[in-house]
Amino acid sequence: MFPSLSIPPAPHRLLTGGFLLLTLVLSFAKSGEGKSARFQNLVTPDQMLEQAMEYLLEDNYADAIPLFKEVLQNDRKNQIAREAMERAIKRKKQIEKSRIEYEKPALAAAKRHYALAEWVEAINRLQDILKRVPDHTKAHKLLVSIQKEVTKLHQKEKPNTINWFFTKGVLAYLDKDWFLAIQMWDNVYAFDPNRVFLLNDINHAKQKLEEQQKDERIKIYSGVAWDHMRKRKYVDAKLAWDEILKFDPENIEAKEGSKAAEEGLERETIRTRADEAQQMTQEAIESYIDKDFKKSSDLWARILEYDPGNDVAKDYLKRIEESKNSPKYYSAGYKPFTIPTQSSDSGYKKALDFINGERYADAIYQLEKFTRNNPDHLKAKELLENTRQTQQELAERLYKSGLTSYSQGNPGEAIKSWREALRIHPEYQKARQALIKALVEAKK
Question: What's the average model confidence in pLDDT over 144-153?
Answer without folding.
Answer: 95
